[in-house]
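User: Some background: our group keeps a shared notebook of sequences we're curious about, and every so often someone picks one and asks for a predicted structure to add to the entry. Today it's my turn. The entry only has the sequence so far, pasted here. Could you supply the structure so I can complete it?
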Amino acid sequence: MIRALFSAASGLNAQQLETDVIANNIANVSTPGFKRDRLNFEDLLYQTFRDAGSETVAGQQIPTGLKVGLGVRPLSTEKIFMNGSMQTTENPLDLGIMGDGFFVVQLPDGSEAYTRDGAFKLDSNGQVVTSAGNLLSPAISIAAEAVQITISQDGNVSTTSPDGTSQTVGQVQLARFQNPGGLRAMGGNLFQASDASGTAELGTAGENGFGLIAQGYIENSNVQIVEEMVNLIIAQRAFESNSKAVQAADEMLNVTNSLKR
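Assistant: Of course. Here's the predicted structure to add to the notebook entry:
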């Protein structure tokens, strides 16, 4: 019964964390480029009373053993990098990636981060930046007199001047990783490379498996609200079931304590 108390308590903690993860997914259902999290669990150690294959006193082999598990624990949270739906905005600096890849941005400390949020803007110097002011890398500058900005599916950026002259001003570069699930989420729709993700592989949109760039579109969050609500109900019911196991173990202990000779 003591084992039941601690096993059920581990289940309560695990389902509480599962609810936290689901709540974060639901909160970011409208965040551009957001990728939903999934919580992975693993069972804890088992207390072995009899091993499978051991022999009885009569020399017979026991086909199955006798073990009792000691609960569960959260193992990891994993980003699910399935593409979100595309929403048209008709803003020339809104970019969506159709397929594999991340936009590369430069942080204030000079390091690089990666994002699927393509809601870009122009700063006071005409440079393309994220909504938080981080520079797109490699840097792209748009002249103040440009009357039109065109970004092709392979990331080529060109502008048109008032006299109708077209000029190429840069190239939007994409990055991808061997294990995107190992990226370190920083918040602000940004990720950083880690030892688990591997180093960034840079390339051109539409080549060597990289996705295409869609101008005038924003990638929505890949959170499916119906799926998250169902998962929330499952987590709630699992939490209630574990609490019932705690109550049952407590009642059994209470009966044991009340026994009289």
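Suggested note for the entry: The first strand starts at residue 37 and ends at 43. Helices lie at 2-27, 225-257.
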